[in-house]
Structures are given as C-alpha cells and as structure tokens.
C-alpha cells in the first residue's frame, strides 16, 4: 500500500541532514524538534510552497504542490491561515466549501453548528485580529474536523491554544486519524506527544 | 471547479471593498462632478470661456480618466504588494485552488473595482455637464479606459517586485513621464521613445483624432500585455522559490 505521506532522504542543511519516514492511514506521527530545527521549512515543502533540496517528498503518491496532493489534504500553519481583513466565518466557509467542492451556502449550517458547539459563535463574525490566539488556532483547525481529509499536516497545532481550549483542539485533531494520515510537527512537551502513535525526532 | 478558479477573485473583492481601499476611489466622482460644475459656472460667467461644449466634455472625461488612473495605479501597487507578500496568501497556496488564479484572480478583482469606479466617475462627470457635446463619446470612453487597465497591470508588476510605497512612487514617476510626453510641445522626437514611453498623455490629447488616438490606445494595451506577461512570469518563479 502506498504511504499517504512519504519523506525519503529529505535534507535541509545544516538543520536537518537526513530525514526519512512514512505516515500511513490511521496513524498520528509526531515530528519533534526544537525552535529553529527546520520544522516549518519542512511544512512549507510538504505544502508545495517551498522547493526541497531533493525531490524526496510524496503526498498521496504525488509531488507536493500538485493538485492531487492538495485535494484531500489539510495544512495548518503555525502563523494561521486567515486573511486579516475578511471575517473569520466567511473565510472558514470559503475553505470548507473549497475542500468539499460544494458551494459556500451548502456549508453554512455545518460551520454555524461547529461554532456553536465550540462556543465561538459570538466571535466568528469578527476580523481575525479581534480574536485571541487560542480562538484563532481553533478556527485554523476547524477544517480538519469539518471535512474528511486523507492527509492532515499540522505545524505546532497546540502552541497557541490556552489550557481551557486544549481538549477542544484535541477533539478536532484526533478523530481525523481514523481515515487519514496525520503528521504533527511539534516541540517537546506538546500534549500531542502522548497521543501520537509514533514519534520522530529531528 | 469554479470555486478553485475564483477563490482568489472573491477573496480579493472582499479585501478591496474595505474602506481602506475604497476610500480614495469614492472621492473621485463627487470631486470631478464639482470640477465640472465649477468649470461650467466659470465658463458661463465668461471667466474660462475658451472651451466649447465638446472640448469641455472631453476634458472632463480626460480629467476623470487621469485621476482614476493615478489612484488605481497607486492603490494597485499597495494592494498587490501587501497581498502577495502576506502569510495568508502563501499559506492559501496549500488549498486545492488553481495557483495561476493567485495571479489572475486578484488582478481581475482590482480591475473590476477600477472599472466600476471608471463607469461611476465618467457617469458622474457626464451627468454634471449641462448637456453632452456632439462627439464620438463611445470612442473616447473606450480609449480613455485603456490607461486604467495599464495602471492596474503596472501596479501588479510593481507590487510583485517591490514594496507598495516604492512601487507607487515609481508608478507616479512613470505616469508623469507618460503624461508630460502627451503635451504637443513635448512629443517624443525619436521613434523608439514613442514606443517605449507609455502613451498615457498622448492617448488623451489624441483621443479624438482618428486613427492617432486608436494607435495610442493599442500601444498602451500592448504595454499592459507586456507588463502582465512579465508579472505572470515573475509570479510563477516567485511561488516556486518561496
């Protein structure tokens, strides 16, 4: 079976001389590294927005950045995924409709119910700058829960989450591994490490 | 499929509709309408009675186009530089969207806004005139729309290669050069200068002269296409290098 995420001989000198591992469906793999260890650069390479030194990465069997690798994948970046000048809810609806391939009006109810369940209904019609970092991180994680991705790649997903929101954030991430390969790039002491099936260190 | 093509267009429209981007545009119609009223009033008083109605109409549309070109160019430089340099834009490339629409979507959005403002502005100007002079107004309106296309195209290229402020300054300098060389006494003497310098001024002074006005419009369109082609090329290089 082709691994959902395959990294074979990736290097980002001098921080990462060599990195090889695979993530299969149903797995949550945590890639652990300190600040400045090259995790975010790897994230960009996985998303296909940065060239890797060697052409060594495959997402769902395809080159990162290709439409096939992005169609059923969710990438959650450390610096969030939201434009500063558009309402968060509008952007979330746009994203969900894009990933599901349906018009925005068809996802409005799901987004509304999700906001209500997460107690974010009163802040969702604000610009991202009006939300605190923890709320913004939950909105960034929302597509993981509201779509059925095959690949989920997260960069420091719990870093900005407040203690009171940790369980909510985990409840968005963990169910995804039933049908997807989940790769979380985290630092030591991240609560996700306890939940990971495997830990890879850089 | 359409969502993938229009994601950036829709997002850019939402961004451009914010007051920060629309404010200067919205000042245009009332400002120009006031100028036309003032000019008509002074003309009736014999103060500026040198223009006949046709000349005044063309001059009014010329004013509208010139001011709109200036604002559209500056705003485009600032908008594109900010958009394409943002974390949001870079991160959004990981969504299942057409990556080439990341260039064309915002460009079409900026052009759509500028076009609506052009129609509103020229509409306001024509409405403010006591009566429309007998002249080929469709031809003039079409030819004087080309500088707006050029301004947005140049803004896209400059927004890609430099900061918003530097791009705006360069755009203003380029437009000023193009404007000054439209003055009959300052027409570029050599052939290659006539081709290289954007004919922003010439398109206005020659807009009623056939076929010179049309030739200048086509030349400015060619400038726009070259600038856009270069911009598209640099965009594709840029998103692969990030």
Class inferred from helices and paired strands of chain A:
alpha/beta
Number of strands of chain B: 0
Query: What is Rg of chain A?
Result: 16 Å
Q: Which stretches of chain A are low in confidence, meaning pLDDT under 50 for 5 or more residues running?
A: none
Query: Low-confidence spans of chain B: pLDDT under 50, at least 5 residues?
Result: none
Top CATH class of chain A:
Alpha Beta
Average pLDDT for all residues of chain A: 91
Total of domains of chain A: 1
Reported for the largest beta sheet of chain A, the result is: 5 strands, parallel
Q: Give the percentage of residues in beta strands of chain B.
A: under 5%
Question: How far apart, in Å, are the first and last alpha carbons of chain B?
Answer: 26 Å
The largest β sheet of chain B comes out as: none
| Helix-strand topology string of chain B | HHHHHHHHHH
> How many H/I helices of chain A?
7
The general outline of chain A is globular
Strand content of chain A: 15-25%
**Series of H and E elements of chain A:** EEEHEHEHHHEHEHE
Give the largest chain-chain interface (CB within 8 Å): A-B, 30 and 26 residues
Number of H/I helices of chain B:
10
The assigned structural class of chain B equals: mainly alpha
How does this structure look, described?
The complex is a heterodimer of chains A (202) and B (242). The radius of gyration of chain A is 16 Å and the shape is globular. Helices cover 31% and strands 21% of the residues of chain A. The two termini of chain A are 26 Å apart. Chain A has one domain: Rossmann fold, CATH 3.40.50.300. Chain A has 202 residues and is of the alpha/beta class. With 242 residues, chain B is an all-alpha fold. Chain B is built from ten helices and no strands. Chain B has helices at 2-16, 19-44, 53-84, 87-92, 101-128, 137-161, 164-180, 191-196, 200-205, 212-241. In chain B, α2 packs parallel to α5, α3 (53-84) runs antiparallel to α5 (101-128) and α3 (53-84) packs parallel to α6. The longest helix of chain B is centred in the first third of the chain and has 32 residues, at 53-84. Chain B is globular, with a radius of gyration of 19 Å. The mean pLDDT of chain B is 86. Chains A and B meet through α2 and α3 of A and α1, α4 and α10 of B.
């Amino acid at each position: 079976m082709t691994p959902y995420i395959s990294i074979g001989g990736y290097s980002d000198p001098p921080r990462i001389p060599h990195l090889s591992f695979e993530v299969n469906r149903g797995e949550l793999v945590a890639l652990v590294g300190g600040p400045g260890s090259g995790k975010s650069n790897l994230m960009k390479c996985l998303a296909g927005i940065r060239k890797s030194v060697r052409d060594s990465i495959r997402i769902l069997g395809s080159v990162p950045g290709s439409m096939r690798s992005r169609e059923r994948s969710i990438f959650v970046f450390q610096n969030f995924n939201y434009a500063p000048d558009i309402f968060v809810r509008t952007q979330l609806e746009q994203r969900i409709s894009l990933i599901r391939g349906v018009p925005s009006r068809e996802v409005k109810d799901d987004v509304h119910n999700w906001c209500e369940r997460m107690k974010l209904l009163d802040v969702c019609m604000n610009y991202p700058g009006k939300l605190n970092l923890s709320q913004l991180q939950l909105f960034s994680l929302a597509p993981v829960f509201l779509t059925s991705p095959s690949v989920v790649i997260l960069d420091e997903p719990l870093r900005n989450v407040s203690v009171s929101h940790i369980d909510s954030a985990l409840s968005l991430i963990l169910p995804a591994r039933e049908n997807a390969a989940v790769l979380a790039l985290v630092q030591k002491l991240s609560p996700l490490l306890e939940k990971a099936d495997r830990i890879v260190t850089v | 499929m359409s969502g993938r093509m229009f994601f950036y267009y829709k997002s850019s429209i939402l961004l451009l509709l914010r007051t920060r981007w629309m404010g200067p545009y919205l000042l245009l119609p009332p400002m120009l309408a006031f100028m036309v009223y003032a000019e008509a009033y002074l003309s009736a008083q014999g103060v500026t009675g040198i223009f006949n109605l046709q000349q005044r109409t063309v001059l009014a549309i010329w004013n509208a186009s010139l001011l709109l070109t200036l604002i559209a160019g500056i705003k485009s430089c600032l908008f594109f530089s900010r958009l394409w340099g943002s974390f949001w834009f870079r991160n959004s490339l990981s969504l299942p969207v057409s990556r080439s629409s990341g260039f064309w979507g915002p460009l079409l959005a900026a052009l759509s806004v500028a076009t609506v403002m052009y129609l509103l502005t020229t509409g306001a100007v024509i409405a403010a005139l006591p009566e429309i002079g007998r002249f080929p107004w469709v031809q003039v309106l079409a030819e004087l729309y080309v500088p707006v296309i050029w301004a947005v195209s140049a803004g896209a290229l400059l927004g890609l290669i430099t900061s918003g402020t530097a791009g705006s300054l360069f755009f203003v300098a380029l437009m000023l050069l193009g404007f000054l060389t439209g003055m009959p006494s300052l027409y570029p003497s050599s052939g290659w200068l006539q081709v290289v310098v954007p004919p922003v001024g010439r398109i206005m002074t020659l807009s009623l002269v056939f076929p010179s006005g049309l030739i200048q419009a086509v030349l400015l369109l060619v400038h726009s296409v070259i600038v856009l082609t270069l911009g598209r090329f640099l965009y594709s290089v840029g998103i692969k290098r990030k």
